[in-house]
UniProtKB/TrEMBL annotation, chains A, B:
Matches recorded under PANTHER family: BETA-HEXOSAMINIDASE, BETA-N-ACETYLHEXOSAMINIDASE
BP GO annotations: carbohydrate metabolic process; glycosaminoglycan metabolic process
Keyword set, alphabetical order: Glycoprotein, Glycosidase, Hydrolase, Signal
Superkingdom field: Eukaryota
Gene: NAG2
Pfam families (UniProt xref): Glyco_hydro_20, Glycohydro_20b2
Gene Ontology CC terms, in alphabetical order: membrane
Organism: Pleurotus ostreatus
Residue ranges occupied by any Beta-hexosaminidase eukaryotic type N-terminal domain in the UniProt entry: 20-153
Residue stretches making up the Glycoside hydrolase family 20 catalytic domain: 176-506
Spans through the membrane: none
Name by which UniProt lists this protein: Beta-hexosaminidase
Top-level EC class as recorded in UniProt: hydrolase
Length: 551, 551
């Protein structure tokens, strides 16, 4: 009764190097077992190796010691005991070097260069004869990516750290330059420790962008120099804030892990909380019934037609974007409610005969102009180009969120885009409605988006070859109506790893075959203190394919 | 624009004693603010107060110190600062006593008496003039329930512990005697610390039964005296087990918190793992395709027609049920797959002309007979009475799980029942499919069951008045295909609190009005180390009613 599928699953289980995630684009493996020497060391063959590369090496060495992950097979570590005892070769070292002519820059510098010219590729050779392993790249960022791969090779059997499938040869680089994760820290607040733990987990699966939806209508936790009143009055509490030094901390923590931080001040909608300190700038603040004035409570939008508000907003965008080192900064632009403006006498006066769309164009030119002065490229939500025809710099990046069916329309406008579609990548779906007094309510993006769903996404479906070049990549997103520090890890991991592989390895992989590797990701994350959830009963996790529908 | 609903919400927000959960059946409150004296103490007015009551008092005193929950209103603790400063009365003591003639037994003894005669009622009087509060009950168990209520009265404002709405008079007792929570520790394993934390949280909302689905086809973590080989071969690892001393620990921990532990050895289905140590007793072990032999992998059922297997099973049930102090023990009985037996030559031989149903009846009489010898009452899943017509003791308790629509049919058979219906009380729904290679798969009990859904349940719908007497209560259930220690708290809390109130306070309460109290439950749980999730953005949690659909 051994089906072909089960046979294939058993074969994949015999090639343990395939537990790597994301799967390298080129890999060849052998049949040898390789032990990690007790005195194993990692050498950086570089003069003046950057401090953050040295730190990355230290973290890798630490994890090689502390992961102690037993392989996910029946019998766990014990199943490999004989192979490990029999294995003769012992790996005593890994040497890191840059390819000839590559500039020596820190990971942190490389992590924030223009996304399309970012260099994340690497070549890793792990011999089976005990000679030193070699990791080469064109950048320290590439070396970091190679270290993440190297870390995933190792398992524990009764105290011995070993890899199977040596010699291992990997030549790797991402299919898409942008692989992100978005976190909303406004609907519910997340302490720095949660964000840092998330950045760590992101780096393990080579996600390179943290899209930080830092403020929204519900709260304003970002302390912006010169605009301290916004967080003083708008944060959930005096301690529920991100100070400039916190932001620096996050940026440098992220950059050292190869992650660019794209912050967002969503405008002109999603700004109700600004009314707490600047009532003069907000139309329809907390107006009821909220359903008439906003997509979710509380209502309130920047008075986009008022010269004073434009001045305030451009200065805020300028000050906020200056806090971040990324080339990109998001000015949002989603879910603008026209009824709010229609009912706001001040806005009607300020329009002075102009249409709402004309005023929005002026407003947006002001905010993108402010970004330009800071040398930043705007990121916007899809409505800015699909529902409103505002003037935007050609290099603007558009995030497609409402539906993956809108991708072609954005591409037709000639803008670069990031996949962030609710029907594939929203992590908050499936948890039922959060609006009160609505017992039968679903979350608007129901049903639950499984990891298989996002994994099955085709980034260039419905695009011409030329349009396909506009796709920078994609990301999972966590809106936090029903999330907080309590469920951050379980709601994000390992699901967000599925887009990490999709946009690194490329689409078209088989989810059924990938499942056993994703189990590996989740089990290893748990060893590292990230509460990634079980995708199956452990019985299934130890028996690749045995819980398939067709098994 | 202040709707009537919002007005009602604002009113409820002015009566903070209503943050109690479950809502007492009778409560009256006043308008005074009451501070907790620094030297506040709880006295037990009993000769030879049981140790577990003394411990419960210590825990309450500890939580009064450590909760430090600021009230969920705009401004949090600061909003009450003036009232707290102005409050003159200070509560220096709470006195616990039993009503005249009540026997002095420990909480642990009271927690396991026959569920229908269990005494959980209490009377609590908290005066507003500074004189001592009084808690009276007919049992130490009732005193424990009163302590849980008393703990929920207190908030923190800048270091001062205070209650609003004094004087407070409460006369309380549960609408239903059985209020449970079921955990499956077989599909994925949970360490003792997770179970204990869950028992704590259960006791805070007066849940009185832990239904422990301890073993299943995937793993056998229970170490049963005389049957050690089952866990030796069937546990996920040598440390993923519950030893007899662990079980004793759980039972006494639970009992001290007023919780009865009903363990389950599911038979004759859901027993595949027994084949690891006793292949002679299992039909179709791990047969493929599993879908033909079981509802989920791995297949495998006890050879119910074999005299040797009946002997083995009765001895196992006897030994396992002896480990637990509860009057109840579940022998399961769900999802028996006849195709498995039809294809098992041994079973066909053993049937020797009997029908499968006849053999099942003999098997069940043997297992219930074993329970009877131990003085235990059987608990079974609904199929045992609805799909099979086996002989069962009249006092057997039937758990209705497949659908709430089956309740009437069970009641018609005259059996006592517990509501455990998948369409209202399954916590594992909504997370997508877990079966491999099935990208579009939903979990079978999709969609997600919100707390509002379970809260809206009517325990006696479709029952006659006489049949309604058969309803013991109900419970939430967590099957753990996609759950483990990583997401235990977030997937359970605060949702499971909704059935706790439903079956304590009684049905028919308004979920919209209850939401603000449930926020209180979740925020307080977090203060106590239980990761209860956010039900809404904090903006909404601080503004009762403001995020209602009709606000």
């Amino acid at each position: 009764m051994l089906s072909q599928r089960l046979l294939l699953a058993l074969l994949s289980f015999l090639v343990p190097a395939s537990a790597l995630w994301p799967l390298p684009r080129q890999i060849s493996t052998g049949n040898s077992t390789l032990k990690l020497a007790r005195n194993f060391d990692i050498k950086i063959s570089l003069r003046n190796a950057p401090k953050d590369l040295q730190d990355a090496v230290s973290r890798t060495k630490g994890r090689l010691q502390s992961d102690k992950l037993e392989r996910l097979v029946v019998g766990r570590g014990g199943a490999d005991a004989q192979a490990v005892r029999g294995g003769r070769a012992t790996l005593s070292g890994l040497t890191l070097s840059l390819l000839d002519g590559a500039p020596v820059r820190s990971i942190s510098e490389e992590a924030v260069v223009d996304v399309v010219s970012r260099s994340e590729g690497y070549v890793l050779h792990v011999p089976s004869d005990g000679s030193a392993a070699v990791l080469r790249a064109n950048s320290t960022l590439g070396l970091l990516r190679g270290l993440s791969t190297f870390e995933q090779l190792w398992y524990d059997s009764d105290g011995t750290t070993y890899a199977l499938g040596a010699p291992i040869d990997i030549t790797d680089s991402p299919a898409y330059p942008y692989r992100g994760f978005m976190l909303d820290t406004a609907r519910n607040f997340f302490p720095l420790s949660d964000i840092k733990r998330t950045l760590d987990a992101m780096s393990w699966v080579k996600i390179n962008t943290f899209h930080w939806h830092v403020v929204d209508s519900q709260s304003f936790p970002l302390v912006v120099p010169g605009f301290k009143e916004l967080s003083d009055k708008g944060a959930y509490s005096p301690t529920s804030v991100y100070t400039p030094s916190d932001v620096k901390d996050i940026i440098s923590y992220a950059a050292a892990r190869g992650i660019d931080v794209i912050a967002e001040i969503d405008t002109p909608g999603h700004t109700s909380v600004i009314s707490k300190s600047h009532p003069e700038h907000i139309a329809c603040p907390e107006a009821t019934p909220w359903g008439s004035f906003a997509n979710e409570p509380p209502a309130g939008q920047l008075r986009l037609a008022s010269p004073g508000t434009i001045d305030f907003t451009t200065k805020l965008i300028k000050a906020a974007s200056k806090m971040f080192s990324s080339k990109f900064f998001s000015i949002g632009g989603d879910e603008i409610n026209t009824n709010c403006y229609n009912n706001d006498a001040q806005t009607q006066t300020d329009l002075a005969g102009r249409t709402f769309e004309e005023a929005l164009d002026t407003f947006t030119q002001a905010t993108t102009g402010a970004l330009k002065e800071n040398g930043k490229v705007p990121v916007v939500w899809e409505e800015m180009v699909l529902e409103h025809n505002v003037t935007l710099p050609k290099e603007t990046v558009v995030m497609v969120w409402i539906s993956s069916e809108h991708v072609a329309a954005v591409a037709q406008k000639g803008f670069r885009l990031v996949h962030a579609a609710s029907d594939f990548f929203y992590l908050d779906c499936g948890g039922g409605g959060w609006v009160g007094d609505f017992a039968s309510g679903n979350s608007w993006c129901d049903p639950f988006k499984t990891w298989q769903k996002s994994y099955s996404f085709d980034p260039t479906a419905s695009l011409t070859a030329e349009q396909a070049n506009l796709v920078l990549g994609g990301q999972h997103l966590l809106w936090t109506e029903q999330s907080g520090p309590e469920n951050l890890d379980p709601v994000v991991w390992p699901r967000a790893a599925s887009s990490a592989e999709l946009f690194w390895t490329g689409p078209g992989q088989d989810a059924g075959a990938a499942l056993s590797r994703l189990h590996d990701v989740a089990y290893r994350m748990r060893k590292r203190g990230v509460n990634a959830i079980a995708l199956q009963p452990q019985w299934c996790a130890l028996r690749p394919g045995a819980c398939d529908l067709t098994a």
